[in-house]
Amino acid sequence: MKDVIFLAICTLVVGGGLVTALSASVINAALGLLLSLVSIAGVYVYLSADFVAMSQILIYVGGVMVVLLFSIMLTSASGTVFTNNPYLGTIPAGLFTMLFIGLVVNILDRPGFSFEAGTYGPTTRGIGNLLLKDYILPFELVSVLIVVILIGGAVMLRKELVVRHHVVVSQEENKKENV
Amino acid sequence: MIPALSENPQSYLILGAIVFALGFFTVLTRKNIIGILMGIELMLNSAGINFVTFAHFRNENHLPGHVFTIFIIVLAAAETVVALSILLAIFQQRRTVMTDELKELKG
């Protein structure tokens, strides 16, 4: 039973990834990625990482996917969304990909590659202790990074930058027309 | 006796390799910048799967792997936000998000 559900989750992960890799529509690719991310949270649950699974759903599905979908809608003229994801060089990229999977499977097949049996248990308390003791410096650095990113995102998209450029462009166009 | 599929670390590692390969393929083949970003997300997720797998299949002291995975998730979100705001700024100036049409940058 456990294995059946595990296989179903793996199928969803790989299926979502395949849609992301092969779909001609950028919206479908984003929805495939969404499926893949949610299923990867399921894989985390199988690895007794309950807190990581919840963060995965909260941050990826609640944050990253919303931003991705918004920018898809903002950058695609309506109507072209479903044919707006062309790709090139499929055959060499596919060969590289197959080579990589073959390499990993080959490495894992070697004898002497053994692990201990995993244990299951709650992890949140331990993660909190680690974040505020051993990993306090990276934790605080991440806080600073998030502030920087908030400010950076606001600066990057502020109005003056865009308006100034449009004025320049339209002036150049006027010059061309006058010539 | 062969352990069950979900108790065998190899199956998780192969899943991580497949997800990484799909992300790699996406990055290599897409023209749309948003598509390339999705491939990067898949690759980061496969790194997370590998971290948690190696953390799970040890008897003691497996939580640092989880902490690193959380850092990966947060940094991936941050990276996506920056990349997409750059993308929107480019789009407002050039009206395109295709890498083959953005050739003005001389290096």
Give an account of the 3D structure.
The complex is a heterodimer of chains A (179) and B (107). Helix content of chain A is 77%, strand content 0%. With 179 residues, chain A is an all-alpha fold. The radius of gyration of chain A is 23 Å and the shape is extended. Chain B contains three helices and no strands. Chain B has helices at 9-29, 33-56, 63-94. Chain B starts with 8 loop residues before the first helix and ends in a 13-residue tail after the last helix. The model of chain B has no long low-confidence stretch (mean pLDDT 86). The chains are: A mainly alpha (179), B mainly alpha (107). Chains A and B meet through helix 1, helix 2, helix 3, helix 4 and helix 5 of A and helix 1, helix 2 and helix 3 of B.
Secondary-structure-based class of chain B equals: mainly alpha
Low-confidence stretches of chain B: none
Decide which structural class fits the backbone of chain A.
Answer: mainly alpha
Number of strands of chain B: 0
Pick out the low-confidence regions of chain A: none
Give the end-to-end Cα distance of chain B, rounded to a whole number of Å.
58 Å
Query: What is the helix tally of chain B?
Result: 3
Residue-averaged pLDDT of chain A, rounded? 83
* Through-space gap between termini of chain A: 76 Å
The outline of chain B comes out as elongated
Q: What is the string of helix and strand elements of chain B?
A: HHH
Average pLDDT of chain B, to the nearest integer? 86
Query: In percent, how much strand structure appears in the residues of chain B?
Result: under 5%
For this structure, the quaternary state is heterodimer
Characterize the largest beta sheet of chain B: strand count, sense, and whether it forms a barrel: none
Q: Biggest sheet of chain A: strands, sense, closure?
A: none
